[in-house]
Amino acid sequence: MEKKNPKEAASVATPRPRGADATAAILRAALDLGEEVGFDALTIEGIADRTGVAKTTIYRRWPNVSAIVMDAFLTEVTKAAPIQEKATARESFAVSMKLLARAYRGQQGRIMRPLLGRAQTDERLLEAVKTRWVEPRRQIAREIVRRGIANGELRPGLDPDVVLDALYGPIYHRLLVPYVNSEVSDAYIEAVIETVFGGLELKPR
Questions:
Q1: Mind listing the pLDDT tens digit for each residue in 9-23?
Q2: What angle do CA 30, 36, 42 make, to 5 degrees?
Q3: Residue 140 included in any domain
C-alpha cells in the first residue's frame, strides 16, 4: 500500500474551508486574533494561517485587514444590537440603546474603538462605517423620532438628527474617552433616556 507523507495526510484530514464556511472562519479569526495580538498587529497572513484559507482567496474578498474587521464587527453587532421598534419612541430607544451598550461592554466595544480610530485616516473605512453601520441605523431611528412627533409623544419641530445625537452621543463619548466611572451601563442608559426625553416629550397643558 502506498504511504502518504505527513503533509498530504494533514491536508486530507483538515480540508480548507470553502464558501460560506471560509467566510465565517475568516471573520471569526479576525475577531479572535485581533483580541489576542491587538487589531493594529492583525495581518492577512495571520488570518490565513489561523484559518487555512489562502491569502489570495482572502484578498479577492477584502482589500485589507480593516475591511475584514468591519465585516466581522457588523456580523456580530447586528445580531446583538438591532434597532428595536416598540410602541413609543422612549421605549424603542431605551431597549435599542441598552442592547448597543451591552454589545459595547464586550468584544464589539473592543473592536469599535480601533475601528473608529483607524477610520479617521482611512477614507474607505470611514465611508464603510458611515454607509454600512451608522446610516442604516439612523434611517430607522429617524423614523422612530418622526412617528413620535406625529403621534403627539414628542414635541413638534424637533430635528431627528439632533435627537439622535443627544441620545447616542453619550454612548460613543464613554466608549472613546476614558475617565473614572465611564462604563456604559444599563443604569447610565436609563439616566440618558430620562434626561433627554425630559426635554423631548410633549407635556400636557
A1: 444 444 555 567 889
A2: 45
A3: yes
